[in-house]
Design a protein that fits this description.
Layout: E1 18-22, E2 25-29, H1 32-43, H2 48-52, H3 65-71, H4 76-79, E3 83-85, E4 90-97, H5 102-113, E5 118-124, E6 129-134, H6 141-150, E7 154-157, H7 160-196, H8 205-226, H9 228-239, H10 246-266, H11 273-305, E8 311-314, E9 319-321, E10 330-333, E11 343-347, E12 350-353, H12 355-358, E13 364-366, E14 371-372, E15 377-378, E16 383-387, H13 395-408, H14 412-442, H15 444-457, H16 461-480, E17 483-485, H17 490-494, E18 499-502, H18 504-508, E19 514-520, H19 526-537, H20 543-546, E20 559-564, E21 568-573, E22 576-581, H21 583-586, H22 593-597, E23 606-610, E24 613-621, H23 628-637, E25 641-645, H24 651-660, E26 664-666, H25 671-680, E27 687-691, H26 697-702, E28 705-709, H27 714-719, E29 722-724, H28 730-765, H29 771-790
Parallel strand pairs: 18-25, 18-27, 25-26, 27-28, 28-29
Antiparallel strand pairs: 1-2, 3-4, 4-6, 4-7, 5-6, 8-9, 8-10, 10-16, 11-14, 11-16, 12-13, 12-15, 17-29, 19-24, 20-21, 21-22, 22-23, 23-24
Helix pairs in contact: 7-8, 7-11, 8-10, 8-11, 9-10, 10-11, 10-15, 11-13, 11-16, 11-29, 13-16, 14-15, 14-16, 15-28, 15-29, 16-28, 16-29, 28-29
Length: about 800
């Protein structure tokens, strides 16, 4: 007897023995392809496809549409648009649909972390996004997305436009649900007035029952359609064996409806159809207003991506989608157009509006060799760019990603609030059960509505919203100030610092170093000495190296150049070893080192030697930033001790320290010495480190909190907790003020949320709170918390 493939319907070859367990039975498969697809469908929890399909699958379309769309995300070509490579894993930002509270976030994080290959998953309930980090060798992205789908949520790689469309669809659905609940509430309330207050005094029993049946008809679509989001969230929580905000809400709604339905059918007892309708209406209204407020907080970083144009013009004049640009592509940008990608200017001069990145209102001049960033606006001239980064790795994409990461990293107070909220829901259910038992014995006719009031009034939505909304709003405000957060603990730690450690060159000073004097100690010409120095410095990425750029000579070529971080550079030329840097470093191999060092005037910061013999000294000048003094003074006024920690050992370091009146000067420090000083401060000192160079990287990584200057090296930026995009030090003061305000608002939110629940709970248990008052109170409590957090968005740069 010929067997047919359960998946596609084709005959199964006699020598084929492939089977997959589907719907409790072993099913025959005709080929490895059908077996693989069927097994994937089963493993992804989509076996309902086989229950409801009307015909066998075709070979050309073996996978149900839902699973097929997820499998596409495993293709490397598609992943290039939204997946980022990290050291040992991959990372993607996801848009989530259906997340309504902290319990939803906890549920998704808990389930995903059980999956092999998942490194980390952090969900932000405010922005409805998640940051997923996974090992592609162990797990496929499609499988991880299917796990989220199985929980009842929808997940897809984050795209600003797609998420905005999803937001508008969600809001439209909420308006439909809200409209039905509102209309039903008006009708049922009119009937309730007639029933409860006996407006028609001669109302007979049959007519009263008729009004109850009419109320039932109006309340039913509210319960089945308008209140559906609450049931779905409650079911997700119960299925995962946890308790969320919507569990007591759903219990209250269903109990009230079932009791009222029973009373209507049996024509005895009280009905609560008006409570069901009004309860649902006010809850939906509160959620609707809350979503709008949270959307305002989340929109700032997503809107940054919209600044990147959708089309780009290639050098030959043809246009392509900006997201398809590859590294090395050459494009032209006309005046007034936005940059479609990060690139290096090959031809042309212009001014570029970078305010969306740095917060600086004035356009900055850019010419050949300078960098231009995606989303910034070309001002006056035609320029030709060579793309240096693909879209997902552009500066603006990294800003959005790091902001999401910072927002998703929960401070300790937020984690505590989430745990308290989950246990609080359990306590509410126990208290509600006890309340019903008590009132059922004392006043049976009032037991149900008193229990409903307890369930509704004490729902801890506001408690779970207290911290994440404030964190999201403050992170958005910091972004507008030109400060990019790379770690989630920044706002917490900024409030605690009592030590400011700050680098000199390129941080307190402009980093615009100029060579003002050259002192020769040999018979080599000044021109040649400067050429040798310039060619050695070409291998350094420090502001000092830029002072020698104008003296480069392509005829001078050094071999085996080594950069000794924090000390200088050395290289071979015509068999001799040349060194440039600190005096002790360049004279390291001189047998009369101590005698020679006496010749080194400390007014000269950089020295050049050949085979240990002193060749020349260079005197440099670097103007102090205009806002450095204000930064130092305001931190000192706040009781924070300021230390200038610099590798510069010259007299210039002391001059800058005296001018700015810092509390402590540590000069001539190596990278190891800087880190050692930081460690010597002890546990009682919380240090904020500000730096910009490669030699600052270890101490930036080791500090409690660190800031890298936007004009600094990539190594410094990758080591820091924050990046100051505009190089304006005064903005660090604004950041600290914002952090203190954020901490105060979080405390206010938590105080309000806890205080409200502590006050309303005994009143509800005592029967002094009607169900509709409980609904209004709970919704108002959440809206107050979110609105209070939105005050942080008024902070601007």
């Amino acid at each position: 007897m010929t067997k047919n493939c359960y998946h596609c319907g084709d005959p199964v070859p006699s020598d084929c023995h492939l089977q997959v367990e589907i719907l409790g039975e072993m099913r025959e498969m005709c080929c490895p392809g059908c077996e693989a697809v069927a097994q994937t469908i089963v493993d992804s929890g989509l076996t309902s496809y086989y229950e409801y399909r009307t015909a066998p699958a075709e070979k050309a379309d073996l996978v149900p549409q839902q699973l097929q769309s997820l499998l596409l995300y495993d293709h490397e070509e598609i992943q290039q648009e939204f997946v980022r490579d990290t050291e040992n894993s991959k990372e993607v930002s996801l848009s989530l649909d259906g997340v309504s509270c902290a319990a939803c976030a906890w549920l998704i994080e808990k389930q995903l972390m059980r999956e092999p290959g998942v490194v980390s998953i952090r969900v932000n309930t405010t922005t409805h996004r998640a940051l997923l980090n996974w090992d592609p060798e162990t797990a496929k992205l499609s499988h991880l997305l299917s796990v989220i789908h199985q929980l009842g949520y929808k997940a897809a790689p984050f795209e600003a436009d797609a998420q905005e469309q999803q937001y508008h669809r969600t809001m439209k659905t909420y308006l439909y649900r809200l409209g039905i609940a509102g209309l039903a509430t008006m009708q049922v309330m009119m009937l309730a007035v007639a029933l409860y207050f006996e407006i028609f005094g001669d109302l007979d029993t049959e007519f009263k029952n008729y009004l109850r049946w009419v109320s039932l008809i109006f309340a039913t679509p509210v319960l089945l359609y308008s209140a559906l989001p609450f049931y779905l969230n409650a079911w997700r929580n119960l299925r995962a064996r946890t308790l969320g905000m919507d569990v007591p809400v759903s219990i209250a709604l269903l109990f009230a409806y079932i009791a009222s339905f029973y009373a209507t059918v049996t024509e005895q007892g009280e009905v609560f159809f008006e409570s069901v309708s009004m309860f649902t209406f006010f809850l939906l209204l509160g959620r609707f207003l809350e979503m709008r407020a949270r959307r305002q907080a989340a929109a700032a970083s997503a809107n940054l991506l919209k600044l990147v144009p959708t089309m780009a013009t290639l050098e030959d004049g043809s246009q392509i989608a900006a997201k398809t640009l590859k590294v090395g592509d050459v494009i032209t940008v006309l005046p007034g157009e936005s940059m479609p990608a990060d690139g290096e200017i090959l031809r042309g001069e212009t001014v570029i509006d970078e305010s969306m990145l740095t917060g600086e209102p004035m356009p900055v001049p850019r010419t050949q060799g300078d960098l231009a960033y995606a989303g910034t606006i070309n001002g006056e001239g035609n320029i030709t760019l060579r793309v240096i980064k693909e879209r997902q790795n552009s500066l603006i994409s990294n800003i959005v990603r790091l902001q999401d990461e910072a927002q998703s990293s929960k401070p300790k107070v937020a984690e505590l609030a989430d745990v308290v909220a989950r246990y609080f829901v359990g306590a509410i259910l126990v208290i509600a059960a006890g309340t019903w038992l008590y009132w059922h014995q004392q006043q049976p006719e009032n037991a149900l509505w008193i229990t409903l009031a307890v369930l509704v009034a004490t729902c801890p939505c506001a408690l779970s919203l207290a911290t994440p909304t404030a964190i999201t709003c403050s992170t958005s405000s910091l972004g507008r100030l030109g400060i990019l957060l790379r770690r989630g603990h920044v706002l917490e730690t900024l409030c605690k610092i009592n030590q400011l450690i700050i680098d000199k060159t390129g941080t307190l000073t402009e980093g615009n170093i100029r060579l003002v004097d050259t002192r020769l100690h040999c018979d080599i010409s000044k021109t040649d000495v400067l050429a040798y120095a310039a060619e050695l410095e070409r291998f350094a990425n420090h502001p000092i190296a830029k002072a020698f750029t104008a003296f480069r000579n392509s005829d001078v070529v050094f071999d085996d150049v080594e950069n000794v971080i924090g000390r200088g550079l050395k290289g071979k030329l015509n068999g001799s070893e040349w060194r440039i840097g600190q005096a002790a470093f360049v004279l390291e191999n001189n047998p009369e080192k101590d005698i020679t060092l006496e010749q080194c005037d400390n007014q000269f910061q950089v020295w050049l030697s050949r085979d240990g013999e002193l060749v020349a000294g260079f005197k440099l000048e670097d103007p102090v930033r205009d806002d450095s003094k204000e930064l130092i003074e305001k931190f000192q006024a706040s009781g924070i001790k300021v230390t200038m920690l610099t590798g510069d050992h010259s007299a210039n370091a002391q001059l800058v320290a005296d001018k700015l009146k810092v509390d402590n000067l540590i000069a001539g420090a190596t990278p190891e010495g800087k880190l050692e000083y930081l460690r010597s401060l002890g546990d009682d000192n919380i240090a904020l480190m500000i730096g910009d160079g490669v030699n600052d990287a270890p101490v930036l990584a080791g500090a409690h909190l660190s800031v890298a200057m936007g004009g600094g090296t990539d190594v410094a930026k990758s080591s820091a907790d924050m990046v100051l995009l505009g190089d304006q030090l005064a903005r660090i003061l604004r950041a600290r003020e914002l952090a203190l305000k954020t901490r105060r608002i979080i405390r206010e939110n938590l105080a309000w949320a806890l205080g409200y629940n502590l006050v309303i709970l005994p009143l509800a248990v005592a029967g002094f709170v009607a169900p509709y008052i409980a609904v209004v109170g709970m919704s108002a409590s959440s809206i107050i918390v979110v609105s209070n957090s939105l005050r942080l968005l008024r902070e601007n740069g």
